[in-house]
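Hi everyone, sorry if this is the wrong subforum. Our group has a chain we'd like a structural model of before ordering constructs, and none of us has done structure prediction before. Sequence below.
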Amino acid sequence: MKNPVRLFKDWFSRHSMRTKLAVTFSCTVVLILLLLMILLNYFITRNYREQLLHTAEKSCDQAQSFLENYLETMIYVSDLIYYNNDLQQAMSSPTFNGHRNFGVQYREFLQLDKVFTSVEMVETIYRSRVFIPDDIFYSSNQRHFAGVSQLEGRVDYEEFLRKSQTEMVYFTEPEEVKIPGQIYTVNLVSLLRTIRNTDGTATPIGVEQVSILTSQLRSVLEKSDITTTGAVYLVNDAGAVISASGGGGGLLKTLSENGTLPQYDRKVRKWTAQTLAGESYLMNQQRLKLADWTLIALVPEKEINRQMTQIGSVILVLSLFAVAVVCTVSVLIARYYTHRLKLLTDMMHTVRGGDLNVGMEKPSNDEIGQLFRSFSHMTEELKELMQQQYKSGKAVKSAQLKALQAQINPHFLYNTLDLINWEAMDHGAPEIAEIAKSLARFYRISLNRGQQVVTIEQELRHVEAYVKIQNHHFDGAISLKTDVPEELLPLGCINIILQPLVENSIMHGIAEIPYIQECNVSISALREEGDVVFTVEDDGMGMTEDQLKALLCADSSDSHGYGVKNIDSRLKLSYGDAYGLTYRSVVGHGTAVTIRIPAMTPEEMERHVQ
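Answer:
Right subforum, don't worry. Here is the predicted structure as tokens:
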């Protein structure tokens, strides 16, 4: 049997230069590419598990920090109530009951109600109240007051009494609560705390309650859950789930039903392997300092392995695709260059035939021999081409440098406006200070450090800052009303889409028509499936159909702002043709414009826009 190497050499020598180039180039590149892909797959899969767990751990650390901030806020608010002088005097009075004059009780109610109204201005606090004797007439208020019988009727009342003997506060489990004046219920987690007389006797005089929405806790857990089939949840020492990430609801329900839901265990370290409901998980637990709550994260081993397999599959598909591309490109390049060489050889034969009186020996059958004889001429052309490319590249770099030099640093603007604000306050000019402060807020949100995406709440603040500035110009004649549900405020949108529309309402209304004494503008928003729909409406003079068409035509512009067409174009370029502006107007009755954007978080929208 012949030597395989010898057989390959014989086969290789019999083929043309085009085949030799294609085989040599493609085999070399494919071997290098496959080696790189194998090494890449090895290092990625080896480090992926550690990186995933590290990311999950950092997310849990951040969630723990946010949750402890919530608890600290609740305790801080409870301290404000506990040590309030008016509350202490009223509730420690021996006559604090319902046998007093109705007018006395009513004045007392107004005084105490201010205490709870003021503390509820803290952003994360949803409700605060105190339990008072049932015979006091305002014990039925339910918002800030409740009868002692309601406290004693709680299922966890005995547990509260037991813990209040040794602990400062007691945190309840989640509960559905009907708030007076509202048609729906809310799910709350509350702090219960015995209020004692601060005169030194420490006599119990009542019980206070401070509550936050469990949706706030769930929002934190959602952001810390980096898996699709795992769970991140809060559980107390009694085994009750306080809150959980949305994706882990089904898992927690299954574990709760079969009694295998993990709770706080001092022996468990970070990322300990656990077998739950027949599946393998890695569990991490973090104890909260201010409550008997434990933050637990469950990462399924199956999901880690599946994602590692997916990474390997992607690398394999990319490798096969790259091999196919390399082979195809190798054949095309080989064909291209050998064809060029043959044409060049034919031209050289023509020159050798007598046109330039250049003598040349008969060329060999190998294209490489032809290449050597034409190398000098090809080198000169290559030098010329390289020189042209060098000049072109230098011109491009010069243009890029000039563009970079033209960038504007907005910090000078902010610092100048802050300086105007302080100077105005020092000189007793509060209106100027307010204008400077509003203008700084307006441009800070407008520029947004060069980013396109802000939250809906920031966009509304941008409009409010603009209206404040304009009201100084129009003597407070502009009224702005906003009606945007709280759950929409954290969502993202591209910046400067509402302010130009409000500006149009002002500039084409009260600014241009002298007899109009006031301008009323309203901004509302609602959720429609996967979209957020804004409506900006004014009570101005309205527009005709021709004016509306002109407003949205490609050539229209607005000297006061971005222009309606600009906003519509930005929305369509960012989100697609299904999004943008829609106008409706009645002459003499005002104009309304609808803005539709997709409902996304700021992070999701930033990636989408990019």
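For your construct planning: The two ends are 62 Å apart (CA to CA). The mean pLDDT is 80.
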